[in-house]
Structure formats: structure tokens, C-alpha cells
Specification:
CATH superfamily of the domain at 297-452: Histidine kinase-like ATPase, C-terminal domain
Bound molecules: adenosine-5'-triphosphate, magnesium ion
Strand order of the largest sheet: 2-1-3-4-5
Radius of gyration: 68 Å
Helix content: 55-70%
Number of strands: 12
CATH architecture of the domain at 297-452: 2-Layer Sandwich
Structural class: alpha/beta
């Protein structure tokens, strides 16, 4: 049983409104008084139709409905109330004098929640009304709670859907990123493999390249030797001109002496030993050239002065033919470690270059001077001429391979390049050129070999 307090609490202090429908004015008055005493607000109606209108308008909390009424009876009124949306949830209690079960069932079927039998007792009336008002309130709250819950569920569902969408987008992005990374990793892997393969072949390639370079160098050396050989032939012809002349004169004199019957044993001996001497000299020249062209790969200690003198022997005659004066100032005991023939080849290149430029520029009083000395454990070799020097425009290029200012029949441009390869690459020295007041000054600096 619900107390008045509970009811008040449930209805939020609001007085519940009850519509009483009865065509019997006495009955109506009794019920109303009773309900007013119970602190309810009471509305009344005397027939079914006005009851429906009033209920639709006032929305009471509960309806007490008589069954037997003129016009539409209680059952029909109840049915119509239940059919109207505004009133269908209002609990209807039948008031009936009829105690038969059949009527009660009919009433409940029409949509009533309960019935009260007339004449009713106050307590029962109060109790039943209170229960149904309580039920109605609970139902209302349940409905509200349900709606609230539904709204929340909807809200949460929307939030979830949103979160789900975001998650989906993130998942898509993540997938893209992952596939990009996988791709990058694959590329990296391929690159790594290539790198490894490259590393494996690198050593071979370096060796191949080195070999190629060695072959190229060897080829260039050969080429410059051939060029020098051409030069030598012209030198030999200069060297032989004089002895050949002498031989010619001696042979002519033999004829004259014979015609004049001056030939005797002593004369013939003199003639033959004179000829032999000249032939010896010529053969000596050939030997000198042959030694120079011998391909000696050995490195040994040698005297700079001796090597230079030997080279001078080779060019002496051609220098004389060109009217060139050679000044030598060679310090003795200057020793170098290396290949003496290669060093001579460098000297020869410098001499030939100087001679060529002196002849080409038709220098009056052409001179070449060679000076060597020992300085701070280093051998200095200087070759100077008075031909005017290397033009500034080409001074940075004259040591480059195949750089030449000469006609191709006179030079291939390898002389200074080979000289640099020999001095700097093989003998750990340096070769440079500067112009002095008279002409070009080629300076070689070489590490001195310790005396034995
Ligand atoms: N003493 C010098 N004075 C002025 N110029 C020089 C002198 N020596 C060399 N040169 C210049 O340097 C160039 C290169 O000399 P390099 O000896 O390398 O080649 P080349 O003499 O021209 O030919 P190759 O020596 O192969 O027969 C020469 O062509 C010349 O122009
Ligand atoms: Mg040259």
C-alpha cells in the first residue's frame, strides 16, 4: 500500500487530478467529497462524451468511470479514451454496482486497469486510486527514463559511429603508411643488395682500372720513346756528319797519295788506323744511343752529373749545328735513387724543348745552361734557356698529356707529361717551370740518395 507521503513525493508535491464520470449527481457528489478529502483535485463529467472532451483537454492523472450511463456507456467511453493518443495512457477505474465477473472482464478488455464496486468504502477507494496513481507515475518516469536512455544511446551511437569513422580513416592512413614503408624497405633492400654486389665487384673494377692505367702509361711511355727515337736519328745524323766528312777526305787523299806514288807501308798503316779511329768513334756513338734506348726497369743509385753528361753527349752535335752554347755547372757526388735511363729521358725532353724553341724563335746567341747542386738533402736540377719563356696563356697546360704548340710532325705533346710522370710518380720528386728574365727555367727537386 502506498502512503500519502510516497504519493506526494512521486507526484513532486503536485496534487493529482482525478476525473470522475457519473450520471448520478448524488453518487458524483459523494465520490468528489471523498476525493477532495484525500487532497486530490477533482473534475467531473456526467456522460461519456463530455468525459472524453474533458479528459482530452485537462489530461487528468486518473479517471473514475461509471458503466451505466445514458448515451455511450462506460465501456464505449473507455474504448474511445484508449483510442485517443492524448488520453490513452490515463488509467481508467470502473465504478460498478455490478459485481459480476463478466462485467469486470468486459471492463478490463475495454482498457480499464481496475474497478471499484459501488457502494465503495473510502479506504478501498483511496488505496486503489493511490496504487494506480503510483503506477501511472512510475510508468511515466519509466517512459521518461527510457526516452532519456534512448536519446543517450542514440547520442552514444552517433559518437561511436563518428569515432568509428575516424578510426577507419586512421586505419586507412596507417595502411597506406605501412604499405609505403614496406615499399621503402623493399627498395632499401634492393639498394643494399646492389651495394653489396657493387662492393664485391668494386675491388675487381679498381684492379681493372689500375691495370688499364698502367697499360695507358706504358703506351704513353712507348709513344714518347718513339718520338725521342725520331729525335735521336736526327741527332745521330748530326753526330756522324763530321766523322763521315773526315772519312771521305781520307779516302780521297788515299787516291791522291797513290797517284803520286806516295803510298808506302807506313802511309797505309796511318790511313787504316786513322779510319779505324773514326769508325770506332762512330760505333761508340751508336752504342751510347743503344744504351739509352735499352728498356731497363731497374732502380739504382746513380750520379746526376754522369747521367746529364751522357745525355749531353747525345745532343751535343745537334746543339752545335744549331749554334747553341751549352753551359754545364754540375756538382759532383749528387746521387739519386731511380732509373738512370728514365732520368736521362727527362733531361733529353728538356734539352730538345729548349733547342726547339730557340730555333723556332731564331734567338741570337742561343744558350742552354744546366746547373745541379745539393741543398738540404735534396738534389736541385735547373735547365734554363734564353728563348723568352713559356707564354702565360699556356703555362698551366704544358705538363698535360698531348698538349703541344708544335706541328704534329715535330711534337706530340708527351715530353713534359712523361717527365712529370717520371719525376713525380716514379722518383718522388717535383718538376716545375717559371719564366726568368731570359727564358724558361725548369726546376727539378729530387730526394738525394745517401752516399754509399
Ligand atoms: N723551354 C720552353 N720554352 C717555351 N715553351 C716551352 C718550353 N718547353 C716546352 N714548352 C712548351 O710546352 C709545350 C709542351 O711541351 P712537351 O715537351 O710536353 O711537348 P712537345 O715538345 O710539344 O712535343 P713532344 O715533346 O711530345 O715531342 C711545347 O709545345 C711548348 O709550347
Ligand atoms: Mg717536347
Amino acid at each position: 500500500m502506498i502512503s500519502e507521503g510516497q504519493q506526494a513525493a512521486l507526484s513532486g508535491e503536485r496534487r493529482s487530478v482525478i476525473l470522475v464520470v457519473d450520471d448520478d449527481a448524488n453518487n458524483l457528489a459523494v465520490v468528489r467529497d471523498c476525493l477532495v478529502a484525500f487532497k486530490y483535485t477533482v473534475l467531473v463529467a456526467e456522460d461519456g462524451e463530455s468525459a472524453i472532451k474533458r479528459a482530452d483537454y485537462a489530461r487528468p492523472d486518473l479517471i473514475l468511470l461509471d458503466i451505466m450511463m445514458p448515451g455511450i456507456d462506460g465501456y464505449e467511453t473507455c474504448r474511445r479514451l484508449k483510442a485517443l493518443q492524448s488520453t490513452q495512457n490515463i488509467p481508467v477505474l470502473f465504478m460498478t454496482a455490478l459485481a459480476e465477473t463478466g462485467n469486470k472482464v468486459k471492463g478490463l478488455e475495454a482498457g480499464a486497469v481496475d474497478y471499484i464496486t459501488k457502494p465503495f468504502q473510502r479506504e478501498e477507494l483511496q488505496a486503489r486510486i493511490a496504487v494506480h496513481l503510483y503506477n501511472r507515475e512510475l510508468t511515466k518516469r519509466l517512459q521518461e527514463a527510457k526516452e532519456l536512455l534512448e536519446a543517450r544511446v542514440e547520442e552514444r551511437t552517433a559518437e561511436l559511429a563518428q569515432a568509428n569513422n575516424e578510426l577507419h580513416e586512421k586505419a586507412v592512413l596507417l595502411e597506406e603508411e605501412i604499405s609505403e614503408r614496406v615499399l621503402a624497405e623493399q627498395e632499401l633492400h634492393v639498394k643494399q643488395l646492389q651495394l653489396e654486389a657493387l662492393n664485391r665487384t668494386l675491388e675487381t673494377r679498381v684492379q681493372e682500372e689500375l691495370q688499364r692505367n698502367r697499360e695507358k702509361d706504358a703506351m704513353m711511355i712507348q709513344q714518347s720513346r718513339l718520338a725521342a727515337m725520331g729525335e735521336m736519328i736526327s741527332n745521330i745524323s748530326h753526330q756522324w756528319r763530321q766523322p763521315l766528312n773526315e772519312l771521305g777526305i781520307m779516302v780521297q787523299m788515299l787516291r791522291v797519295d797513290y797517284d803520286e806514288s806516295l803510298l808506302d807501308d807506313a802511309k797505309i798503316d796511318e790511313f787504316s788506323s786513322g779510319c779505324m779511329e773514326i769508325i770506332q768513334h762512330m760505333s761508340q756513338t751508336i752504342n751510347t744511343f743503344r744504351t739509352f734506348f735499352k728498356r731497363e726497369q731497374t732502380s739504382a743509385r746513380f750520379e746526376v752529373a754522369a747521367a746529364i753528361t751522357k745525355t749531353v753527349d747525345l745532343v751535343q752535335a745537334s746543339f752545335q749545328a744549331a749554334g747553341i752554347t751549352l753551359h754545364l755547372e754540375l756538382e759532383s757526388d749528387c746521387l739519386i735513387q731511380g732509373n738512370a735511363n728514365e732520368f736521362s729521358q727527362v733531361m733529353l725532353n728538356l734539352f730538345n724543348n729548349a733547342r726547339d724553341v730557340l730555333v723556332e724563335r731564331k734567338v741570337a746567341n742561343p744558350e742552354i745552361s744546366v746547373t745541379t747542386w745539393l741543398e738540404n738533402g735534396q738534389i736541385m736540377v735547373v735547365v734554363e734557356d734564353n728563348a723568352g719563356g713559356v707564354p702565360d696563356a699556356i703555362s698551366g697546360k704544358i705538363f698535360d698529356p698531348y698538349f703541344t704548340t708544335k706541328h704534329k710532325s715535330q711534337g706530340v705533346g708527351l715530353g713534359l707529361y712523361m717527365s712529370k710522370v717520371i719525376i713525380e710518380g716514379k722518383m718522388a720528386g717535383e718538376i716545375d717551370v717559371v719564366n726568368n728574365s731570359g727564358g724558361a727555367r725548369f726546376q727539378l727537386v729530387l730526394p738525394a740518395a745517401p752516399a754509399a
